[in-house]
Amino acid sequence: MFGIGFGELVVIAVLAVLVFGPDRLPELAQQAGKFVRQLRKFANNARDELRTELGPEFADLELTDLDPRAIVRKHIADAMAELDELEDAIRSDDETPKQVPLDAGERPPYDVDAT
What we know:
- By secondary structure, the chain is mainly α.
- The protein is 61% helix and 0% strand.
């Protein structure tokens, strides 16, 4: 949760009791809960509005999909998967002619135009 460990959470709780007092703390916690619910409702409404405006092809749109880091990560993963598939296809392509040793007295092929 936001990278906060148990020790930091205890310190924040103690500071909140000292600063606000034990009688106002439940009221502040209730206000914080309302704020989080409103923020979540706002984010869900924004996501739903984007989905309706963009059309049915974006019906599974999530707001986290719009994060540039996630987009780059996804494209890199797709490129790596395509590269792996290509390497597997090259490895499985055993139609290349095998090298056959020359018979006794046989001369190797020589291309005059290649030299």
